[in-house]
Amino acid sequence: MxxxxxxxDKISDIGKFDFLKASKIFAAVSxxxxxxxxxxxxxxxxxxxxxxxxxxxxxxxxxSEVEAGRVRKFAESMGYTNAQVQSLGENNxxxxxxxxxxxxxxxxxxxxxxxxxxxxxxxxxxxxxxEGALVRRVDSVGPQVGSExxxxxxxxxxxSLLMILIYVGLRFDYKYAPGAVFCxxxxxxxxxxxxxxxxxxxxxxxxxxxxxxxGYSLNDTIVTFDRIRENTVTYRDxxxxxxxxxxxxxxxxxxxxxxxxxxxxxxxxxxxxxxxIQDFAFTLGIGVIxxxxxxxxxxxxxxxxxxxxxxxxxxx
Length: 316
Description:
The protein is built from 10 helices and 6 strands, in the order ααβαβαββαβααβααα. The protein has 316 residues and is of the alpha+beta class.
């Protein structure tokens, strides 16, 4: 049923925020952030973990505090000058990353790898006798396996975006699909750009978090699109700009409540957990913030832009 002017004024009072008023400003901000993220990724690249780069990762825990410098000196004394040492929480647990070793064949590679692991684990127990060194885990990934995992991770993101484009186009209308897909691309690129900027490790868990972000952001966007589609019928005598703005106000409380409760869980994981769980939580935290922003200021304005382009094309 159409809404007359008196009812529209009342509705306008309920929808207090004019989100589309500053859409051009936020479009410029989003473009700048996306472009900057791509530039940072191209210049600095990623700090790939052993999942993608290959190598050996040794997690060691000491019964008393040990400075990171001592652990680095230990790695250098073992002959591994390019080893990376990362503290996990307190100064009593570290992650030592060693470069991959390659032999003439698989048998020789396995022999060299086992010798390296034995050398490091025995060296830790000998060099840190009074500190009580305990090797908690050792993970090794070959360079070929790492390259395959990297390729599969990128393909997973690409196919996810492709299927989402098809899904949104079939469920709604093709004027909605570009906004949804660009929104997800925007979220993923900015998140990875922050990882590249701060040199944080990119591994399988990071890619899993990026795919989780894509799903989270899409869910929020779909809820907004559903409300736009419903309001298109309810307020069919109003402009499409009014309908989108009204829809954003309708779902605002739901969006904020979902984001805040998710951030509480993510913050708990980041503060209380460590290692890969903390990295996973860090990725999700960025994704929730960027995803909430993009569902309001990226996806919906793009729907309005595509609608105007379609109308201009039809009128020409």
